[in-house]
Amino acid sequence: MGKLFRLFLLALVLGANAAHAESRALIIGVAGYDDPDIPDLRGPTNDALLMRDVLDKSGFIDITLLGDMPDADARPTRAAIFEAFAGLAERADVGDQIYVHLSGHGSRQLDPQGDETDGLDEIFLPADTALAQAGSGLVPNAISDDEIGALLAGIRRTGADVFFVMDSCHSGSGTRAFERGIADRQVSPALLGVDLSQAAGQSRSVDAAPDAVGDVEGGGGLVAFYATRSNDVAREVDMSGGTAGDDSEWFGLFTAAIASRLESGQALTYRQLFQSVLSELNQGSGFGMGAVQTPLWEGDMIDEPVFGRQGYAGPERFLVEGDRVDAGRLHGLEEGTVMALVADIADPQDAVLGYAQVEAVEPRRAYLRPVSDDCVPDPEALCAFSGSLPEAARFAQIEASPVTLTVAFSPVFDTESGLPLAPGTETSTRVAEALEAASQTTGIGAGYPEEIYDVQIVLKDNKLWFGPAAMIDDTPTGLAFDLSEDGKRLAMLLARVLKAERLAHTLDALGEEASPFNPSPVAVDVERNESPIAVLGAPGSAIDPRRECQAALRTMGEVGFQPLAGMDDLKQCDLLRFRATGARDGQRDVNRIHIDAQYCINVDYELIEGDQALRDLGDPMVMCSDCPGPVPYSAGYERLYVLVSELEENAEALNLSGVLDNCGGGTRSAAANALSGVLEDAAASGRTRGSMSLGGALSDVWVDRYAWRVLPRASAFARNEGAMP
């Protein structure tokens, strides 16, 4: 269920409860450990007290504190942590804002469920953690990532939204030598008695325990901040530089940065909060040191206001370091783009320190030159240098963009005559005016070439249809607009088309630049599973898409999966599955970017580590020409790109979720959510063998492209005439 629909439903049915939403928190700091072989930490107690004070000042009315401090509600043992989560879930209600914070040691153990691609579970160590028994590979009383995910899901099922912060690490790498006053928050699995050589990577299966950000049907949203990526360590530091003489000034770097920003009271989105924390870690702001760890985020609330508090969020901004900005072609930057430079993510839009122009652009980064405030964006002739880039500039926002791309539209073809409408007709004029308005809104050019076009426009029965090819056989397909509707809606839909086509042009160009001497470090496996047409309703019959696909999916098994070919023809209830495996060492950001027949852009993100185990790239996609979601008819041409990029040090992961999505959940994801129950049942009964899960160009960017057609029901039956009931 899409988030917008979920929020609407909850507000409609439970509006009275939502009006009395509360802010609640569970803060856990584990500094002292019972087992003498597990080293104590100095910072988690201070982290917990700091976060409690910050949240108390910001209006949280229900704060549970677990730690070794005198006024703690309980000591942070495994049992106490589970009890605190359960109590919070009992008190939480629809619309509540929940903050959960874990500070302490992290590590890894063998994965008993078989749901981890590397055969290892990430674990958090409560105070009563013990050493593993010889050969077991399991750490007594440790809390696994699967268990944390289940605990968070219990809170989200109440309809509450959760902000989860974990200031620990899960790395099995050895300790590193740092300057005095810095400590790692990690315990080597070997110290805990875990032999990592016993781990065996496996494919994830549908009946695995939920992860931290798994879908919770009808539940609240979640955004999770992690102090570091899985192959690095989180750190705590003595903020006094050794002058305090005790542990009172030791804090987790990540916690301190988050607390500092929350305490400022600025109105931010979670993305802005994360970017500001990353910037402070990069700059060593307030810590007297340079960057030492790279945090990560995931979840479905990244662009929502922190704790649901509305206020000025400002324009989209990107991190700046020297003459480099952490955004590129994938973020809409081009050579000639003019950017305004500001000091802070939360500064007002007019708090400009100076201006810069993009003089070189790559997929995920660009390089700036200082220019005057009257610079006009032009990719053919850059503005002259003017002064220097302000030293205090840490963020950049787009001020003006050159028009370098023109999306080609066909004339309006009348299906009755088979001929294009004359330019001066009423319908042609409406399209031209709406397209001009959409072009001005998006900054993307639109034109009408005589022959080759990106978007075909078809008129049938007083409806306009838009698509790469807007007809399959004799049936219109793609994005529809009823001419009885308001012209502003047509302009809005065409803006969606322009943005989707610009993205497709960008990704196609990146894919064309690929070098055979630098193959992608991630191998992608794409398979289709055909639904039996005998269980589908005949054209013209009354159908329930959800029940129809339930019946189809119950008959489909693992043996039905076959590789997706070129431009395949797919039909109602067919299934597409995307999986990937690392081909060499390293960590990569992988974005699955789907442009559906409605020109909706849907993104799924995965972090792929350099192991050989298959990992799902997003949920399997249930095809629907007739859908249970908000768009009942969605046949047409679709495109999907798998974008692979190297995970960079001290930079935000290239997670394009929320950056590119333009429809709040597309038709395919809506269908998958509606059908998830039957797939889970099928997997549990063994019919899918546990595998049908729902749940470039340059040196560091690679793109794979896939395309298919979703056939109208009549076309699907015509192609399978021999199998018709």
Give an overview in words.
Helix 3 packs parallel to helix 6 and helix 6 crosses helix 7. The N terminus is likely disordered. Helix 8 links the parallel strand 19 and strand 20. With about 725 residues, this protein is of the alpha+beta class. A 6-stranded mixed β-sheet has the order 2-1-3-7-9-12, sandwiched between helices. It folds into 4 domains: about 220 residues, Rossmann fold; about 80 residues, no CATH class; about 90 residues; about 200 residues, no CATH class. It contains 12 helices and 35 strands. The longest helix is centred in the last third of the chain and has 26 residues. The radius of gyration is 27 Å and the shape is globular.
Question: Keyphrases for this structure?
Answer:
single chain, 725 residues, alpha+beta, 4 domains, 6-stranded mixed β-sheet, disordered N terminus
